[in-house]
Here is the input.
Amino acid sequence: MADVLLRAPVRAEFARVALRVAAVYLLARVVTTGFLLLASMLAVPQSRFGADPTIGSFVMGWDAEWYSFIAGHGYPSELPRGDDGRVTTNQWAFMPLYPMIAGLVGVPFGQYAVGALGVSLVAGYLSALVLFHLLRPRLDETTTMWAVVFFVSGPLAALFQVGYAEPLFLLWLFCALWCVTRRRYAWLYLLIPLMGYTRPGVLAFSLFLALFGVWRWFSRRREALAAVEVVHIVALGLLAAVVGFSWQYIAGVVTGEPDAYLETELSWRRAWTGESGGFVPFDGFVRASAIWFRLWGQPEWAGYVALGLVLVAVAALLLFAPAVRRLGVELRLWSVSYLVYLLAVFFPQSSLFRLLVPVSPLFGALAVPRSTAWRVGVLMACLAGQWWWIYSMYALANTYYQIP
Here is the structure.
């Protein structure tokens, strides 16, 4: 987006939009702060945070503790193991860029927590601003602003105020998607490594570039496809794949165990399955659908059927829903790529809600003009979902399905 800022005629317009997004973002953060304060007052003694938690303890709760530990101690050269010899949860599941930046920002304040909160807040605002410019070519300004409102007020909007890497990842991701939609590929050589070392998910971007390249080839009569663009798409897709797999290599070199990263990731899954098998793509959702339905007192086959119906419904929405189609091919291909990536690698539990945040550009489809009542209703649903998430994950946080 640097070229936008360099053009004098648009600087005033950019500043106007930046101020509007800032006002919306600030108001949303005030609401979220109110929710966090209320959650601290309603916290139960059995909560992970105790009976009288502070917002500061929420900021540094859950995965934020891991990031803080990485900032202070780095990664283990020897994998921790339980009495059964299996690898237990450790820092290798988390990427280094967010804790490094948060740690540096926190140095003048003498507290990592201040740096973590500051990075999340600033990255959240900038991601909202980039999202506006990402959606604006496809939607009118009012509709685009409503999409930003839904984004900054959504069910997972508390992530902008806790020590999680998602806001920083969204900033890199939205910038990368903007570059693809504008065919500004050079910036991606920087953005892809930034994404890859902020949180897992860059392999989905590799798949996205592959699908995008196929689409560009078949649409080359409508939009000329130069040889240099082909080179960029192929090279960037390969770069995203290399970056995506590099963390496994780094973990293997440091620990001396080639499967260090996969075993670390599987250590979380084994708390559910109790099995010691290796990683099998797409196995997580199939296995979890049976586990969840069994926990709910339903037959396992119903879980498989439900999973199939959900997949068909989501595919139909991404392919045929007019509001989604208005967002453009690039955002639809990204959404498909990321959802396929989740299906391939993730074991669904309560963290699934957080892991769906990278498809936030789809908020644009919810904002497509219907009526003011519809938009207000969506906003109320977003705020209700946000309170439910904060209350469950922070005020209660006392059972297996209350993990953010």
Observations:
- Residues 2-396 form one domain.
- The chain has a mean pLDDT of 94.
- DSSP finds 19 helices and no strands in the chain.
